[in-house]
Amino acid sequence: MIKKFRTISRLLVLGAGFLGCLVSSVANAEDKVVLKVADIFPTTHYILLEGTQKWMDKAVELSEGRIEFQYFPAQQLGKAKDIMSLTKSGVADVGAIIPAYVPEKLPLSAAGELPGMFNTACSGSNALAELTAPGGILYEQEFKPQGFHVLYTNMLAPYTVVTSEKALNSYKDLAGLKLYASGDAKHETLTKLGATPIRLSGPEIFEAVERGTLDGAMLAYIGLPPYSLDEVMKYGLTGVNFGSTTVTYGMTTEKWNSLDSEIQKALTDAAAYASNALCSYSDSMNSKALEDLKSGGAQIHVIGGDEAAALNRELEPVIENWTKVLEERGKPAKKVIEQYREAVSKHE
Fold first, then answer.
1. pLDDT digit string (tens) for 305-348?
2. Where are the beta strands (DSSP E) in the chain?
3. How many CA atoms lie within 13 A of 246 on its CB side?
4. CA dihedral defined by 239, 241, 245, 249, rounded to 10 degrees?
5. Mean pLDDT of 178-182
6. Sign of the torsion angle spanned by Cα atoms 192, 182, 150, 130
7. From 3.40.80.10, 2.60.40.230, 3.40.50.300, 3.40.190.170, which CATH number describes the 33-156+245-284 domain?
8. Which helix (H) or strand (E) holds 130?
9. Where in the sequence is the signal peptide annotated (predicted)?
10. What is the torsion angle, in degrees rounded to the nearest 10, for the CA atoms of residue 281, residue 283, residue 284 and residue 290?
11. Which CATH superfamily is domain 160-243+296-345 in?
12. Judging by DSSP bridges, how do beta strands 299-302 and 235-238 pair with one another?
């Protein structure tokens, strides 16, 4: 009888242990947070390698493995202009949201894309992070009404203009050229300088230049190698910021609120880490990309002194017109410009 009782006791203990492991496994499975990320950049792009990938890796680390990402690059889940809608509908949990591609939804958030708004990627990125955080003017005016929480932001390095065949000895040489540019702000800048802006996707630029249907592009020097444009661009300008592109990654407010505080903190802290890493990389490598292009034989004209002052005077109406148009639509564009410049000044 005693032997039988001990056997039953051992079975009960083993059974309880098995049940405990089963419950623990179920709890661990439920504890995991899987986030599907829809991106527009190819896997070779520095924004992914030096920014988004570091954000995801750091978030996994800080959450001690609770966060798991399913990553879809290069517009695999949808075109750049559709990512915001796809994220809102639940096709993705996190989406790369580029205001230039959705001006009807985020017109004010393109403020950093206007000429001369900042001098370094880090000062622009830090200003953008400030204004898109809860309480910031861009969050309150645009992302919050759209039902989005901004996770991670970046302003690309200051843009310039490069061409394949047309020598650039002054900014006035841009007149009459057909140049790639994304977004209304950059289109207005080129139009003001007498050029014709052409809207294409990044991968389409190389082919258009080779066919001769495009003379060049408005991009940062660091943005040339990912699309092999450093192989075809022979002339360029430097010394003045012609504009930039705003990059944000966000999820719906509903999805954000469904996450527990530990997961939210991991995502937020990882974003600060990755944004700083990316903008630092952008600033250092933009200079290197310029030197590499020059080493390859490209002729670069430096805009400075009186020419820079004249160009800035010529482009000031671009900002004034952008502000006027949005103010007439009831948008606080003037306040956005003021707060953006104030935030930039703290980081330059």
1. 999 999 999 999 999 999 999 999 999 999 999 999 999 999 99
2. 33-38, 67-72, 94-97, 148-155, 160-163, 178-180, 196-198, 216-219, 235-238, 246-252, 299-302
3. 34
4. 90
5. 95
6. negative
7. 3.40.190.170
8. helix 121-132
9. 1-29
10. 120
11. Bacterial extracellular solute-binding protein, family 7 (3.40.190.170)
12. parallel
- Return the bridge partners of 69, or none: 35
Q: What is the rounded distance in angstroms from the CA atom of residue 234 to the CA atom of residue 232?
A: 6
Residues 6+ apart with CB under 8 A from 311: 171, 240, 303
Mean pLDDT of the chain: 92
Band of pLDDT at residue 38, cut at 50, 70 and 90: very high
Query: pLDDT tens, 222-278?
Result: 999 999 999 999 999 999 999 999 999 999 999 999 999 999 999 999 999 999 999
From-to residues of CATH 3.40.190.170 in the chain? 33-156+245-284, 160-243+296-345
